[in-house]
Amino acid sequence: MAELTTLARPYAKAAFAEAVEQNALVQWSDMLSTATQFAADDSVAKILVHPSLTAKQQATALTDLCGDKLNQAGKNFLMILGENKRLTLLPEIVEAFEELKAAQEHAIDVTVTSAFELTDAQQETLSLALKNKLQCDVRLTGEVDLSLVGGAIIRAGDLVIDGSVRGKLAKLAEAMDT
Q: Which of the two ends of the chain, N or C, has the fewest CB atoms closer than 10 A to its terminal CB?
């Protein structure tokens, strides 16, 4: 996984630089997401790795599927990925691009995994607290994992705060083993 991220990073940086230069971060984000969605389709994924097709044919197939959802720069980007046999890296490229975009916008995506669905008031309180702590805008996404028993796990980039009952029990068991 780390190797794929390492391979994807230069492409994400190049796309990001182009998006900043064109003042089109949202458009590039949409284009990359669209291409990734098409590439994730099973039949398209087979085309992107089919040994009898040239890299240009693979990239052309993907750009044709995306149609008018890509501008010329987006099509050129996919052609370069195709030439370098990197079309399968699109998910990792999108992830790296979105991280760069969030940093540019001084925003961070936060995932809160809790044992129960958070209310709107809880999400608002948590968003405000994280915004103050992280000094940036927070885009909160909630997930439910019943195995947590109670509490929550908060993931914001590299920061992970485990306030779940399951996590606390695991720490207690570890302390008792020593």
A: C
